[in-house]
Amino acid sequence: MTLRPKVNKAVIPAAGLGTRFLPATKAMPKEMLPVVDKPAIQYVVQEAVDAGLHDVLMITGRNKRALEDHFDRVPFIEQTLLEKGDLEKLAAVRLPSELCDIHYLRQGDPKGLGHAVLRAKQHVGSEPFAVLLGDDLIDERDPLLETMIEIQQKTGGSVIALIEVDPAQISSYGAADISAIEGEDYVRVNKLVEKPPVEEAPSNLAVIGRYVLHPRVFDVLETTEPGRGGEIQLTDALQTLAASDGEGSGVYGVVFRGRRYDTGDKLSYLKAVVTLAAERDDLGPDLRVWLKNFSQDMTG
């Protein structure tokens, strides 16, 4: 296998306004919404770290200061917990600041996901890198990012994560036209369409918020015109790479069949909180009993 630059860095776009969760997100970033007792963004950073990525760049915007505060030390709280002898909670409070090196850069103009990724160019440089969207939580028992990194190293192109959705829902996603690759458990992406009408969708394979990208994507994004919604779409840049030749060309897909939670959707967010809480040793037993009784009362 050709020796290629390793993937060491992760980019987490976190500049969105979170309008679907207003008024809760009026003064608090949507990425800080709690999933049980940790904010959603911490799960995403932990996923990057678990995949071996210890250099994280967050692309932020106005009113996102709470993100930086969460991943910083809080000496007063730590000292209070230490004096109380609450070492378990102390470790939990310190963990976010010890996960990895986190850098912050403001997006400035909200010109779309493609523009947010392009803002990372100077930090990333000429290495392949991962992009993790904070709305998608991937269950830690179903590794995805590690697999995507391996495929990027093998192919030298860019890799996206796909899931099968109900065909009627495909217009809410980017949709992929794919071809199987003999002997491989990943696919070649021939075409990507951002939020197509149901009747024009090339498949029911939807792009979700995990990417491992060749740095050539930056050159493409610099010349990508605004697309759907008047924004610079990462999907459009990947479409260009899928149809190109040479170094860094080609886009490949991993069809993910593990557990994923969309915390950008209210119902899916609630399911994520309940599911993750029900599986915990400290909360699960009592919660599962309550859920069973609650369900019976609701249907009774």
From TrEMBL:
It is an enzyme of class 2 (transferase). Coiled coil: none annotated. It catalyses: alpha-D-glucose 1-phosphate + UTP + H(+) = UDP-alpha-D-glucose + diphosphate. Its EC number is 2.7.7.9. The keyword Transit peptide does not apply. Keywords: Nucleotidyltransferase, Transferase. GO terms for molecular function: UTP:glucose-1-phosphate uridylyltransferase activity. CDD domains: UGPase_prokaryotic (cd02541). Residues 9-276 form the Nucleotidyl transferase domain. Pfam families: NTP_transferase. InterPro entries: GalU_uridylyltTrfase_bac/arc, NTP_transferase_dom, Nucleotide-diphossugar_trans. One of its GO terms (biological process) is UDP-alpha-D-glucose metabolic process. Belongs to the UDPGP type 2 family. This is UTP--glucose-1-phosphate uridylyltransferase. It comes from Arthrobacter crusticola.
